[in-house]
Amino acid sequence: MKERIGVYICHCGGNISDYVDVEKVRQAVEHETGVAMARTTVFACSDANQNDMVEDIRTHNLDGVIVASCSPKLHLTTFRNVTERGELNKYTYVHTNIREQASWAHSDDKEGATDKAIRLVKAAIAKSRYAEPLHPNLFEAEKTIAVIGAGIAGMKAAASLADKQTEVLLIEKEHRVGGHTATWGPLAMSEESGSALTERIYNDLLRRENVTIMNGTEVISSKGSIGNFTLKVRKRPLKEGDPVETAEFTVGSVVVATGFDSYQPKEGEFGFAQSDNVITLPDFRHLIDHAEGKELIYNGKKIRNIAYIYCVGSRQTNGENSYCSRFCCTSAIHASILAKKRFGKINNYHLNRGIRTYGKQELLYAESLALGDLYLQWAEETPPAVVTEGKKTTITLRDILSANRDLELEADLVVLVTGMVPRADNKVGTLFKLPKGRDRFFNEVHMKLRPVETVIDGVTIAGSCQGPKNISESVNSALSAATKSYSLISKGTLETEPIVAEVNSDLCSWCGKCAEACPFDAILQQEVGGKMVAVVNNSVCKGCGMCAPVCPPDAINLINYSSEEIMSMIDALA
Amino acid sequence: MNEEKKIIHYDALVVGGGIAGGEAALNLANSGYRVLLVEKERSLGGKMILLSKVFPTLDCSACITTPKVSEIARHKNITIFTESEVTTIDKRSENDFVAQITKKPRYVHVEDCTACQLCEQACPVSVRDEYQQGLIGRKAAFIPFSIANPKAAAIDIENCTLCGACEKVCPTHCIDFTMQPEQFELHARTVVMATGFNLFDPLEIPRYGYGQHKNVITSMQMEREIAPTRPFNTILRPGDGKVPDKIAYVLCAGSRDASVGNPICSQICCMYSIKQAQLLMGALPMADVTIYYINIRSFGKGFEEFYQQAKGMGVSFVKGKIGTIKEKENGNLILRYEDISEGVVKEAEHDMVVLSVGVKSNPDAGKIFPQGALKLDPHRFVAQTDLMGSPAKTSIDGVFVAGTASAPMDIPDSILSAGSASSEAISYIKQHQEA
Fold first, then answer.
1. Range from A45-49, A543-547, B190-194, B223-227 carrying the lowest mean pLDDT
2. A360 touches chain B (CB under 8 A)
3. Which of A95, A112, B100, B418 would suit a FRET pair with B88, their CA atoms being 20 to 30 Å apart?
4. Widest CA span in chain A
């Protein structure tokens, strides 16, 4: 039982103290049983306060620490580490959230918010009294790292890892490396073509001895967790009749770099698939990259007037893809300039929803304007109508830039500027149970604090599988993911949270309900003492607690959330 | 000047202790390299530590920055020099860089200072507080700001009258006017340039009346007004202390504008303005907020949704670039603009105007290396010599660029860019390591 608990109530610089009377909270809890000291602080997470906490632990001889502040998602680890620096067991630290749960949720009711904060802190004190010291589970980590996907991002991640003296497996589903970029001609903001860039990065990768490149190979299953993932891969036969080979590898960490799909317009979307004159941006890129001669010919027809319709499959406020694909404005403008410079006599009409050539890409937009390209802008509510009669395609639209005039233009070719969508083939995501964001791309833990990590420990995300990106942004993300994956396992010994489920095998008679409830496949059936029981794999278990309530004989307990602790918290809340 | 030059050795020199430099230093340190992080200001954290909340998640900026800064400050592989300047860096050969560093005197022994603020109370000199963007004053003996790291007093020697009042009240006797600049010669194997950006100076556009019209402020000043560590307890217009109820944002103030020598887009202003508008709607529920824009560039993850959310909250978006801003006698402002969607020139009255100032390069980065060895781009950002294949590479092998030193970018992109720079720096060290 803890008898000398220190309680810190954070203002969060106003985020909490604007609505919660933090001084009142302090006064309400300072005489609670077991509380040795209670104080308020403007920013509990600041370095100065962290140092004060370490000092307090020593001078007040504290045996328990509570911070009432933000979500534990943000700072549980921060304060556990402070507790540890004060030479207390870090798992005895108790975090309570009075920001999201009190001040932000009840900003219209200051008294209510304060009262709720007091109860939450009292509940935390109740839990703290029973908090037992725990020790992380330690195990040896495999030092090989797998990179899945050998596009630009995957290849760069592999090279970065190899330079850190790590064995790397680079696994690519296709029979060639380079992903989308390998098929592209001249790139925006560069003198190089996509294919040349791919080749350069690939050759650079080949100089490294510790990279094994596996083309035409799919990951078909994954078992285990950080430090010890067992990946089963299958080599796709190059031609029919070739044997299907499978192999197994153990890796410590995985970088997922599975890339994106191009949005495929639906039939009839801006005349797509109803007229030969309507194509997508990737089709147009292919056309101009491979065109010969001085004229742009498509379907046997000379192309003069090209209309580009932007945001096809992107920025659909109430549609499937509400996000902006970020690369497409620049990419379309770049392609239109290429076409104009190469074939002359081309008239470009850009039917956009506000051009987003951010940063230095703005110069491309300026160049296009200087070349005489016309920009027309439409609102989402009044999309352009594309009508093809015979060989003639006409577009009508209401143009914001000419005071909402209704305009009509004839185009030889209509280019639908399509964005990036998540891979339709989500096998890799499913294998690792990677969570997705609202945009259905893989989601990072925290955009700023942990931008390449996922909630699955040991699995990082690189490049456009996390969200639309251009090449240089993908490379930055890939190198960050590689560095993170490396630092996760580089020490060789890994710690995992001791807060896991434990099964009382005397009570368990294996019904399988817990295994069904477990979202992480952490529960296995095993024979213990002559009968089949549930066994928890500690390195996979996340301590989410889903298994405990479904267990009919109540044989599962969650460490750190004992009945004693929970019941005393409920009593304090009441 | 202290004659004795100290010779020091580290694996990596990181120039700039903002979020990009800090992230790069942490990555290197976590991979086992010893890092010297040099920051010219009195605190780590760069511009981010001074922000209110950050888009598109509305996380409190201090809540992300301060613990990160704390982690950097405590890391056993990182040494921090604040108030220090890297004057030159010479590359002698691969993995052999020699930098000259001047550490300016703070006139306070940081390790003894308890940040009790008694010196601040005793100091008779008041000057504008640069950390609060000049909205209020500070003393010449002062704690830079409440979440500064290191959190210790400093003496602003430029404005100090040497009256000695601070010295007399200091309970730990940590104020020391005899402190001298210190010179260091650093030997490092690689360099990461994370020298950040400068904000566009709105005085360059006289027709917007910044500095003339009292209620025209910059977005960074508004950032301070809505930050947790804000100077006032509410949002006030500086002219008369009135709480504004009709606020205008002028986007592209100094961006996408060749007439002020900055033709590129600053990439962050649309989003921070939308963020501020959302926060203002929360802080001043009765206020109207209008954003005057050319194009809204909400291109990052969750950004477009954030923009739509602002529209849903009632923020007005008017497509039109502001031509001029005139001041009325009551301090209100008349904005003249072309309303693009109607094709007519209009005027609108607001009681406070925020100029969404853009990102300019910090050309200091180029001055550190002899004879222009570190190439800059036409906008005087550090040139990226392999933008597609290795975005962190510069014209000098072994010198890498992180964050906004190379181009305008938002916080998530700066952090990824820092990850990239540190990864390249490690690869470079390993590549040239003697076998």
1. A45-49
2. yes
3. B418
4. 88
